[in-house]
Amino acid sequence: MRPSPSLIIDGLAAAAAAVLTAPERYTAPAYTLTGPQSLTFRERAELIGAARERPVRVETVSRAGWMAETSIPASYAEALLDHWRSHDGTPVATTATVAALTGCPARPFAAWAATRAAAFS
Questions:
Q1: DSSP-derived secondary structure for the chain
Q2: End-to-end CA distance of the chain
Q3: Domain locations in the chain as residue ranges
């Protein structure tokens, strides 16, 4: 049985539920899940600011500065920084996989941020 989109809040959760509840229907070894648009970290921050009706200040810090301030274990922090560097704002390809798995299109980031505006206060 396909999960009800009205009960599943996010596309990622809905896609996971679809695969886990009907594994016989979804046999790919992996799925690439994306939203409907490719956004930079700065664009996401701007959309969160718009959702909470207060701008989000974005500051660029050095790798060493971030490492000195984080409480994340060093190996994980290094992996995150490497990942973030590899996604330097260059648009990435989007997929329709969420829609294919759930029957509903992925929600735009702005819609996701709007439902969580209070959490970003």
A1: -PPPTTT--SHHHHHHHHHHH-TTT---S------SS---HHHHHHHHHHHHTSPPP-----HHHHHHH--S-HHHHHHHHHHHHH-SS------SHHHHHHSSPPPPHHHHHHHTGGGG-
A2: 37
A3: 11-120
According to the model, what pLDDT value does residue 68 have?
A: 94
Determine the CATH number of domain 11-120. 3.40.50.720
Amino acid present at 37 = Q
Tell me how far apart the alpha carbons of residues 56 and 32 are, in angstroms, rounded to a whole number.
Answer: 29
User: Distance between CA atoms of 102 and 119, rounded to whole angstroms?
Assistant: 26
* C-alpha dist (Å) from residue 81 to 22, 78, 114: 36, 5, 27
At residue 9, the pLDDT reads: 54
pLDDT tens digits in sequence order for the chain, 121 residues long: 444 444 345 788 889 899 999 888 888 889 998 889 998 888 999 999 999 999 999 888 999 999 999 999 999 999 999 988 887 777 788 999 999 999 989 999 999 899 989 998 7
